[in-house]
Inverse folding.
């Protein structure tokens, strides 16, 4: 199989939690649920202070198409609607609920057994209402991703089970323990998009996940492909032969960032998403395995997204894979894992390559929180950085074929206008360049600076243009 | 939980883990790879060679520290880059070079070759090569008087006897007799182990090759530059040798003599002054090889490695401008 160019082999450090079964975290006394846990417009609170709410009850209504509602993850009482620390680093409007300990579901959650017979629009509505967003970390509202414009013909759906971030094992454990939910979720997505072929890409360092998924896939009804079809990667679908299931589990090379959307598509199907384009430009929709499981639970049991699997690992006494209620504070989870082992230096939400450093433990787990990684004080020092010595390690490591060395210099010198030559907007911020740099340059940070400045400039230019030539905005 | 409130956490941009690669590690590994060949220089040219090496290194490191202090930069001599420059320059000098020549050369390498441009990472030329060429055109006599190799165990005073380098002999024989003459009689074994005249660090072909392979194996240099550099020299010299073996030396002779191996593995591969992409490196190596063999076959100087690499150093920004890595998704594909 032809994979993507570049990438790195960091120390995966997954052994602490990869064999630990998922356990339910204690139901917290208090949850803090931000109204923005996704990319797009924040939702609008529909509860007031003092309201009694049940588990699964909607707290905030989506505002616009690219938005997602939020739900209460416990039953209890709304005690505050105010700004609270948010994992993004800024304070954000959040709804605080004190749990009453009953953990009662909201009424009217119907179970569906014939869910594969629902229409695409019905399925989309269920998914939207359940507040499902990409659980791999990007948190893009899932119903939007499942609504490609009609001119984009989708031919394949890939579930992302690569979990290439070091330390994290949440997706891994989910694939081992609940492969049925993932496969059913994929079947729902296939049905929704009217797509025949589904793939589940898993790095080969998770053989147990691959075998469990393969076993589940082998049990789903056999189906003949409607046409003989060979993927660029050599995967064949044959019409004449008695075909197996229309889903295949694909083992992927163990290489970071194998789980980056474009790299995953390249490795699985050997299709290259054009620069500046989206997966749908090559006829593919990618969803995280956790998202597929959430879709299944929403469609089958009408359960909104109120919990997720989060790996709590690093310098904590008992690292764990926890099923956590959205809104649980990080401090509660650290306590549940026996506290810190040694002096903590950094608390990262997500993995070590792309996660965000937190300034306080009073931030809640949100829909995109795949892990809490504690780095000891000794590993959290600020590194002095040096001049670029042009060793080229970053150029070889970059999975996007960029020249991070040049971008880092342009960023350092704030050459925003001239940096576009080196395509900063193609950067996926995977961190490979900074990881390999012997001069310890914060390359990704410099590129983020450039991207941000370019976005501001673009927005300003647009504003100016619209001021001169007003366009009537459609009400979404 | 009270205690947790007092926590001071570091917040920084991702990624939060880094590889253990550092500039020091790279520099000291290259130095390590050079040591066997430098040792051969001392073995064949005696204590003088050791003196030149020490003098060159001390001057380089001292100048680096002084310049960094004077220019208000962070003192970073422990990164090993000045040490490496000092060692490389020494390896490009005759073992009987007078002390002042070594000091001037080494100071030139660091001050003019490197710090004036902004220090490590910003120099245009390989500093050691810039210094060598500066010395060669300023003091041509001292720079081209080569002691005859006499191992440190021999009783002969090494300074007393001088001899031409194989390439020098080749050039003079061609001028005098219009054929390769005496140069044909140099033993291949001597060329391989380093029992020939030349700069103190360039003579031992086998140890330079081993050092180069070690660096490629460790991933600190890639094969592209050495392969295209040496390959170009081999192909072009082979063409002339096949046409007229009486007037042109064999490709093997060209590979084993002069500064080719030292240049191809340790000087042309300098990160700062060579292209960053593999394709760029191949073009760069080809240019180095082409200019080297052009000077060796048709130029006034017997040896052209230093000039070739310096000229190609100048072309590096141009190569980097036009030879870029292929951007992911640049070519739009149909579904």
């Amino acid at each position: 199989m032809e994979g993507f160019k570049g990438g790195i082999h960091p120390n995966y450090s997954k052994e602490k939690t990869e064999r630990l079964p998922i356990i339910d975290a204690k139901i917290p006394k208090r949850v803090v649920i931000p109204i923005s846990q996704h990319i797009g417009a924040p939702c609008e609170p529909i509860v007031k202070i003092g309201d009694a709410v049940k588990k699964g009850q909607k707290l905030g209504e989506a505002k616009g198409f690219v938005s997602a509602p939020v739900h209460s993850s416990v039953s209890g009482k709304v005690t505050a609607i105010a700004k609270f620390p948010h994992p993004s680093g800024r304070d954000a409007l959040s709804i605080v609920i004190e749990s009453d300990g009953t953990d009662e579901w909201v009424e009217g959650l119907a179970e569906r057994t014939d869910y594969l017979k629902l229409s695409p629009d019905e399925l989309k509505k269920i998914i939207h209402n359940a507040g499902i967003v990409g659980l791999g970390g990007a948190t893009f509202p899932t119903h939007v991703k499942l609504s490609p414009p009609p001119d984009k013909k989708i031919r394949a759906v890939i579930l992302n089970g690569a979990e290439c971030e070091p330390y994290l094992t949440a997706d891994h454990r989910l694939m081992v323990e609940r492969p049925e939910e993932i496969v059913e979720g994929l079947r729902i997505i296939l049905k929704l998009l009217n797509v025949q072929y589904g793939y589940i890409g898993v790095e080969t360092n998770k053989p147990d996940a691959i075998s469990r998924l393969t076993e589940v896939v082998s049990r789903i009804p056999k189906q003949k492909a409607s046409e003989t079809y060979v993927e660029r990667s050599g995967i064949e679908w044959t019409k004449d032969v008695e075909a197996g299931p229309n889903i295949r589990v694909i083992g992927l090379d163990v290489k970071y960032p194998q789980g980056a959307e474009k790299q995953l598509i390249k490795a699985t199907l050997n299709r290259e998403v054009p620069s500046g384009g989206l997966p749908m430009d090559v006829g593919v929709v990618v969803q995280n395995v956790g998202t597929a499981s959430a879709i299944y639970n929403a469609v089958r049991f009408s359960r909104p997204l109120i919990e997720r699997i989060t790996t709590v690992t690093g310098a904590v006494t008992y690292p764990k894979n926890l099923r956590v209620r959205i809104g649980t504070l990080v401090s509660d989870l650290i306590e549940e894992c026996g506290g810190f082992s040694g002096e903590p230096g950094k608390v990262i939400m997500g993995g070590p390559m792309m996660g965000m450093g937190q300034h306080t433990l009073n931030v809640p787990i949100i829909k995109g929180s795949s892990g809490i990684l504690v780095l000891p004080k000794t590993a959290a020092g600020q590194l002095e950085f040096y001049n670029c010595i042009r060793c080229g390690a970053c150029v070889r490591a970059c999975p996007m074929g960029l020249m991070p060395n040049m971008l880092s210099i342009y960023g350092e010198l704030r050459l925003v206008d001239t940096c576009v030559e080196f395509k900063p907007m193609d950067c996926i911020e995977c961190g490979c360049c900074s990881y390999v740099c012997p001069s310890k340059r914060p390359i990704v940070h410099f590129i983020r600076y450039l991207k941000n400045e370019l976005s501001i400039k673009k927005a300003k230019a647009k504003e100016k243009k619209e001021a001169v030539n007003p366009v009537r905005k459609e009400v979404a | 939980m009270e205690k947790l409130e007092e926590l001071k956490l570091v917040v920084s941009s991702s990624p939060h883990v880094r590889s253990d690669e550092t500039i020091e590690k790279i520099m000291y590994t290259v130095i390590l790879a050079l040591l066997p060949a430098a040792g051969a220089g001392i073995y064949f040219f005696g204590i003088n060679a050791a003196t030149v090496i020490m003098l060159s290194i001390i001057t380089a490191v001292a100048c680096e520290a002084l310049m960094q202090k004077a220019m208000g930069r962070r003192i970073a001599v422990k990164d090993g880059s000045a040490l490496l420059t000092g060692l490389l320059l020494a390896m490009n000098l005759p073992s009987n070079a007078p002390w002042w020549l070594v000091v001037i050369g080494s100071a030139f390498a660091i001050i003019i070759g490197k710090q004036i441009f902004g220090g490590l990472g910003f120099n245009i030329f390989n500093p050691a090569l810039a210094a060598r060429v500066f010395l060669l055109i300023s003091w041509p006599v001292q720079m081209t008087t080569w002691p005859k190799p006499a191992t440190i165990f021999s009783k002969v005073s090494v300074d007393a006897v001088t001899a031409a380098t194989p390439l020098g002999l080749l050039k003079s024989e061609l001028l005098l007799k219009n054929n390769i003459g005496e140069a044909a009689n140099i033993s291949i074994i001597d060329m391989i182990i380093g029992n020939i005249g030349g700069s103190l660090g360039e003579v031992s072909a086998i140890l330079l090759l081993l050092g180069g392979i070690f660096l490629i194996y460790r991933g600190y240099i890639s094969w592209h530059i050495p392969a295209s550099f040496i390959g170009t020299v081999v192909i072009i010299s082979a063409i002339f040798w096949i046409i007229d073996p009486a007037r042109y030396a064999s490709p093997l002779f060209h590979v084993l003599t002069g500064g080719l191996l030292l240049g191809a593995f340790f000087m042309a591969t300098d990160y700062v002054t060579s292209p960053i992409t593999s394709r760029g490196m191949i073009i760069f190596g080809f240019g180095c090889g082409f200019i080297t063999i052009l000077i060796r076959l048709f130029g006034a100087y017997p040896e052209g490695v230093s000039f070739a690499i310096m000229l190609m150093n100048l072309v590096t920004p141009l190569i980097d401008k036009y030879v870029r890595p292929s951007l992911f998704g640049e070519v739009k594909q149909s579904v």
Residues 2 and 8 of chain B are 13 Å apart (CA to CA). Chain B touches chain A at residues 1, 4, 7, 9-19, 21-23, 25-26, 76, 79, 118-122, 271-272, 274, 276-277, 324-333, 335 (CB under 8 Å).
